[in-house]
Amino acid sequence: MTQQVALVTGAGGSIGTEISKALAGAGFAIAVNDIKAEPADACVAMLTAAGHRARSFLADISDAAAVNAMVADIEAEFGPLGALVNNAGVPGPFSLLVDLDDDVWARTLNVHLTGSFYLVRAVARRMIPRNVGRIVSIASVAGLRGTVGSGEYGAAKAGMICLTMTAAKELAPFGITANAIAPGMVGTEINRSLADQGSRFIQTALDATPDGSLVPPADIAGLVAYLCSPAAARINGVTMPIDGASTLEMGTDSYMRRSLGKRSPFLKGLADDPSA
């Protein structure tokens, strides 16, 4: 049987590497995409050392011609693509909308949204005749609620969510599913380091997350692997938050948890009972 092939964009980053690892463990050969050779090669080395089939395919996904050429190269070398994971992104400076530079806006949308469109179009044209395929896009809770200081990022992720729903509607008749995942604050290496340094920004995010923790990249990867599996064949066009319930949080919730927790007879009882 021909091995399934998955293309993971931005695979050199912490989230992309975990996604690549999870999909490889599920039996996929991995086409590792990044714009930089060093992180892509590191991901490939990690996968091949574990006995998986992988190769790096460098391309700027905001370039339509580069995307089309990359997809053709992947299928020529590895065989038919069975899964696409839109994970690539670019960092941006924090600023209010009134201070946002045009080129920051354009670059963010070009990579996150336009690049995802180019990839969906390219792989869909190849998946449709085969009547099978999985597309998963890594969006963000910022695309569900907006986010102060990163308007370009929230807008791009909201666009990815809408693109996902449209792709699901158009591609479902051909056995192709399209879903999105919306992480909250992710426990990347940078964010974990900031948390260890006592970052007020990270701590504020944790205070607004009911379970009080960063999202492990491996949790995101596990959900991607599930959505790319046969078991998820009937899940289509949805955006799944993976955020410790932060999208449910209201401004007063953390205050009330602390205040009522201190007064709770039940919780006090647990604290006083060593067997609990």
Per CATH, which architecture? 3-Layer(aba) Sandwich
CATH class: Alpha Beta
Structural class: alpha/beta
Helix residue percentage: 40-55%
Largest sheet: 7 strands, parallel
How many β-strands, per DSSP? 7
According to CATH, what is the topology? Rossmann fold
SSE string, helices as H and strands as E: EHEHEHEHEHHEHHHEHH
Number of helices: 11
Under CATH, the homologous superfamily reads NAD(P)-binding Rossmann-like Domain
Overall pLDDT metric: 93
Low-confidence stretches: none
Net shape:
globular
Keyphrases for this structure?
276 residues; globular; seven-stranded parallel β-sheet
Characterization of the model:
With 276 residues, the chain is an alpha/beta fold. The protein has one domain (5-251): Rossmann fold (3-Layer(aba) Sandwich), CATH 3.40.50.720. The protein is 50% helix and 14% strand. The chain has helices spanning 14-25, 37-49, 64-78, 102-127, 142-145, 151-171, 189-196, 200-207, 217-227, 253-263, 265-272; strands at 5-8, 29-34, 54-58, 81-86, 133-138, 176-183, 239-242. A 7-stranded parallel β-sheet has the order 3-2-1-4-5-6-7, with helices on both faces. Strand 4, helix 4 (102-127) and strand 5 form a beta-alpha-beta unit. The longest helix has 26 residues, at 102-127.
